[in-house]
């Protein structure tokens, strides 16, 4: 569950809604409609239905019109906390079913809370549709009687762990709290954070939970959207059955907009325990959501910083060289809005210089304004965003439910399209002058704790409440507890679990393939639902071809290829791509260089012409090289502040060894970055040949059109590819060793546990993936169920194996609260040791059902379909590999599962990496009985300890 908005603001140029029971209708590239039907139940619940039969899946989203803006000081974080409580038990659903059963049906589920609302959502195969209505309606209308003290205390720990992970243990995590306290007056509904404070969360009582439910969780304060492969008339009957008896609830008085006006500019500084780079934010009060000025402010944000021609980019990044990037954006909520300028500067840069550069950029905007081309580029990009924003049934559901509940019209996006179309130069300058020019703002200087002098001069030191790490308290020892005793709410319907519908069958999409004359393979999947195309050119090699002393060269070379062509500066290239409404990005990874992008289908040919230009005519500008190299080093320095990155990078080095290139970060380190020259980049570029490369294309385009569009690229790009000699991998580190890395005052410990397993080309690869489902496959896995649901030690715990050509590690990861580090390690250790011997026939059946059902929804999006093509190309899989792997799964016996577990999940061969607070946790982890080795954050050994002895 998330304490932030999961509803993206969708920009549009052309979008028409109509009311009927048809799915998407796209008659031309210039018209587009998402059709829906709306009705209201007798209890006031507003229901919107949208039919989309392109995949045998259904999305359900329930929007409650209550967020943190309905809380009271002293009870902050309660809306988000209640969202967590809602996922526990309900009257007619088995204990724990909400979190466990939905994944087992092949579905996914989650929720989100932000300042103004709370949303619950699921996506399931269509045979589980009525089951979702059963479980979702029971959560909505029949959960309050089942809440117990044990559930309350357990969920407190989970939410507190979420806050530690997202806020307390993260660089810049307290910035939002500082801004809210100073931007909004005391008592304003936005003057506290959505996640709230730990003392407030700990003080929550059962009476608080019940009061909140009865006040805000009535049917009259909600909207329900169902989108997907449904029959409208049958769905209406089912909705009335499952949701129609939920009480309407008391009238919830709507909140009127509460914009704020600052009487002075406030400058605050904060010394951040985790931050390695200084960050400046300037936040101006703006307008509430659905105010027409919101749209002009969105465009203003793009014009100020959204391109290499924008004034803030010019002054902050290009000319002054103070930071790798600058961002500006408007964020409007139900009651008020914020226009934000944000810069995370290079290491050691005084924020006074950043502030001066921002002021200079704003002055330049006032004098020079912007060109018609810039406005045209933004609108072209917004058209493409429109289609990608509704490319899945869940995204369609989100848009409909958001606009219905907060805009009072599920088709409000039509008006939004009109407003965006009408935005003029005068509108942009008007909102700039109204909300930004000469106005007061809140400014935060968040700086490394060791460098307080980098803050803006004269800033007042901000204070926030910070948790002290202590030994585990009695109230932190939580468990499932007894079930509540209550009388079931009477109903005229049978509210027991409904049966599955007819089982949907996964249909492997048709894959076409052709071989280009230059040795490049071309694969595609035609999908005509939307007028968009997603593509990827993959060139083998990547980081595996890096020299050890220049680690990160492949990634850096790819990054520099985005910075213009022989005939276009980086700004001109960016504009050319943007005017098509396209995106193109060259990126490096462990095993390849990828040129990825998206575009309107009508613009595929000119987009590929720009891809060809980027690939064959790189600019190699010395100034771009120097700027990008500084950006690279800034990113590497910032990485030192991230405990999760520290754990992952050191685990990788320990698994592969420091002498294997795979054991070094794909983005290198500060030492190797310093070694890279422009000549090195040019030498690496010579590896980028079509022999062994592949182009994958998914979307509204056929094989003939693709082949014609890339004729020039095929004719002009020649050469044999280079094969890596770094494919052989052996275990670099013995198991049974625990490596501890100190991050002082860390509120959580990051755990990485695992050992080398296999390559994605190995015949056992699918078997290992199947064998992992019960252990760590999502929220229904034992790791999640035990460490989060039963114990409340973590926000999440998972296990996985990445798809790689070289041997990849099987890995277990989690972030646990600091004082639960040892018990969490003990649980994981025992779970791995017992996993194979404890695997049962019931587990076999559950795995088979879960995986087969998941496949019905796993390949809905264009990117998921692109992933199918990647597996066929990169790992040499047949075009029907998903069908074959399903067949392999169905033929697996209990012995096959046990043999796979015993072969690849041996606990005594696994290494343990713990990143946490040494002062309180080092002595604790020694009690696990393993050899303990201390490392610094860069992987250098500090000292070795044995079994807790010095």
From TrEMBL:
Region span, Disordered: 476-497
Pfam families tied to this protein: Peptidase_M16, Peptidase_M16_C
GO molecular function, one term: metallopeptidase activity
Domain called Peptidase M16 N-terminal: residue spans: 47-171, 527-643
Keywords carried by this UniProt record: Hydrolase, Metalloprotease, Protease, Zinc
PROSITE patterns membership: PROKAR_LIPOPROTEIN
Keyword field contains Transferase: no
Residue ranges of every copy of the Peptidase M16 C-terminal domain listed in the record: 204-382, 675-850
Ranges of compositional bias, category Basic and acidic residues: 486-497
GO biological process: proteolysis
PANTHER family the UniProt entry points to: NARDILYSIN, NON-CATALYTIC MEMBER OF PEPTIDASE SUBFAMILY M16B-RELATED
Stated family: Belongs to the peptidase M16 family.
Protein name: Peptidase M16
């Amino acid at each position: 569950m998330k304490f932030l908005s999961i509803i993206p603001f969708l920009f549009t140029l052309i979008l028409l809604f109509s009311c009927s029971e048809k799915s998407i209708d796209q008659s031309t590239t210039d018209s587009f409609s998402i059709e829906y039907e709306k009705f209201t139940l007798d209890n006031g619940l507003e229901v919107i239905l949208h039919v989309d039969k392109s995949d045998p899946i259904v999305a359900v989203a329930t929007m409650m019109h209550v967020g943190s803006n309905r809380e009271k000081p002293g009870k902050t974080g309660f809306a988000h906390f209640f969202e967590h409580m809602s996922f526990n038990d309900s009257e007619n659903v088995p204990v724990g079913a909400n979190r466990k059963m939905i994944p087992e049906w092949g579905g996914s589920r989650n929720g989100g809370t932000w300042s103004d609302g709370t949303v619950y959502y699921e996506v399931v195969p269509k045979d589980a549709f009525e089951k979702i209505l059963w479980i979702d309606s029971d959560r909505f209308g029949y959960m309050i009687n089942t809440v117990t003290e044990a559930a309350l205390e357990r969920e407190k720990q989970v939410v507190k762990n979420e806050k530690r992970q997202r806020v307390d243990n993260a660089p810049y995590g307290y910035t939002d709290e500082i801004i809210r306290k100073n931007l909004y007056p005391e008592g304003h509904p936005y003057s506290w954070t959505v996640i709230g404070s730990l003392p407030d969360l700990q003080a929550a009582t059962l009476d608080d939970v019940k009061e909140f439910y009865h006040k805000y969780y009535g049917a009259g304060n909600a909207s329900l959207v169902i989108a997907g492969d449904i029959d409208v008339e049958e769905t209406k009957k089912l909705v009335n059955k499952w949701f129609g008896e939920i009480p309407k609830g008391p009238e919830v008085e709507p909140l009127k907009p509460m914009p704020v006006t600052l009487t002075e500019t406030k400058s605050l500084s904060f010394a951040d325990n985790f931050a390695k780079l200084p960050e400046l934010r300037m936040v101006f009060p703006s307008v509430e959501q659905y105010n027409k000025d919101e749209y002009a402010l969105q465009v203003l944000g793009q014009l100020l910083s959204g391109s290499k021609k924008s004034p803030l980019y010019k002054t902050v990044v290009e000319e002054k060289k103070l930071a790798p990037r600058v961002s500006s954006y408007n964020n409007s909520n139900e009651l008020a809005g914020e226009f934000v300028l944000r810069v995370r500067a290079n290491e050691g840069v005084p924020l006074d210089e950043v502030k001066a550069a921002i002021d200079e950029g704003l002055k330049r905007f006032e004098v020079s304004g912007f060109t018609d081309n810039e406005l045209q580029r933004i609108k072209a990009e917004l058209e493409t965003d429109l289609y990608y924003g509704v490319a899945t049934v869940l995204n369609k559901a989100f848009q409909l439910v958001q606009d219905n509940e907060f805009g009072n019209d599920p088709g409000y996006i039509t008006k939004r399209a009109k407003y965006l179309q009408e935005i003029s130069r005068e509108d942009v300058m008007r909102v700039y002058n109204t909300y930004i020019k000469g106005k007061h703002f809140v400014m935060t200087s968040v700086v490394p704790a060791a460098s307080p002098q980098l803050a803006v001069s004269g800033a007042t030191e901000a204070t926030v409440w910070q948790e002290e790490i202590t030994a585990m308290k009695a109230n932190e020892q939580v468990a499932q507890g007894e079930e509540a005793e209550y009388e079931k709410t009477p109903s005229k319907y049978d509210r027991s679990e409904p049966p599955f519908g007819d089982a949907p069958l996964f249909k492997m999409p048709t894959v076409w393939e052709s071989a280009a004359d230059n040795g490049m393979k071309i694969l595609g999947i035609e999908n005509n639902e939307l007028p968009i195309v997603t593509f990827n050119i993959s060139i083998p090699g990547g980081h595996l071809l890096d020299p050890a002393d220049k680690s990160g060269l492949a990634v850096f070379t790819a990054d520099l290829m985005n910075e213009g062509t022989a005939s276009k500066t980086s700004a001109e290239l960016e504009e050319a791509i943007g005017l098509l409404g396209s995106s193109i990005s060259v990126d490096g990874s462990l095993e390849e260089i990828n040129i990825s992008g998206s575009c309107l289908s009508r613009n595929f040919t000119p987009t590929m012409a720009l891809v060809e230009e980027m690939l064959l005519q790189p600019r190699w500008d010395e100034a771009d090289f120097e700027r990008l190299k500084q950006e690279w080093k800034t990113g590497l320095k910032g990485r030192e502040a991230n405990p999760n990155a520290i754990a992952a990078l050191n685990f990788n080095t320990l698994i592969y060894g420091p002498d294997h290139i795979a054991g070094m970060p794909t983005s290198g380190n500060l030492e190797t970055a310093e070694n890279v020259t422009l000549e090195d980049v040019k030498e690496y570029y010579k590896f980028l040949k079509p022999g062994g490369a592949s182009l994958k294309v998914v979307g509204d385009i056929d094989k003939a059109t693709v082949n014609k569009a890339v004729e020039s690229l095929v004719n002009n790009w020649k050469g044999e590819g280079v094969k890596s000699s770094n494919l052989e991998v052996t275990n670099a580190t013995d198991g049974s060793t625990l490596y501890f890395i100190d991050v002082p005052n860390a509120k959580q410990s990051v755990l990485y546990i695992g050992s080398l397993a296999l390559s994605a080309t190995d015949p056992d690869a699918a078997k290992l993936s199947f064998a992992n489902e019960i252990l760590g496959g999502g929220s229904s896995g034992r790791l999640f169920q035990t460490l989060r649901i039963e114990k409340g030690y973590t926000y999440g715990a998972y296990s996985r194996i990445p798809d790689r050509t070289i041997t990849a590690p099987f890995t277990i990861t989690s972030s646990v609260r600091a004082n639960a580090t040892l018990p969490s390690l003990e649980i994981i250790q025992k779970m791995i040791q017992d996993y194979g011997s404890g695997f049962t026939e019931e587990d076999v059946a559950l795995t088979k059902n879960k995986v087969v059902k998941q496949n019905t929804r796993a390949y809905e999006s264009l990117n998921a379909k692109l992933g199918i093509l990647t597996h066929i190309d990169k790992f040499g899989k047949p075009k029907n590999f998903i069908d074959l792997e399903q067949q392999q799964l169905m033929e697996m016996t209990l012995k096959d599962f046990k043999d796979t577990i015993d072969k690849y999940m041996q606990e005594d061969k696994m290494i343990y990496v713990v990143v946490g607070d040494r002062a309180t946790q080092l002595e604790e982890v020694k009690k696990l009985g393993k050899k303990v080795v201390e490392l610094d954050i860069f992987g250098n050994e500090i000292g070795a300890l044995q079994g807790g002895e010095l």
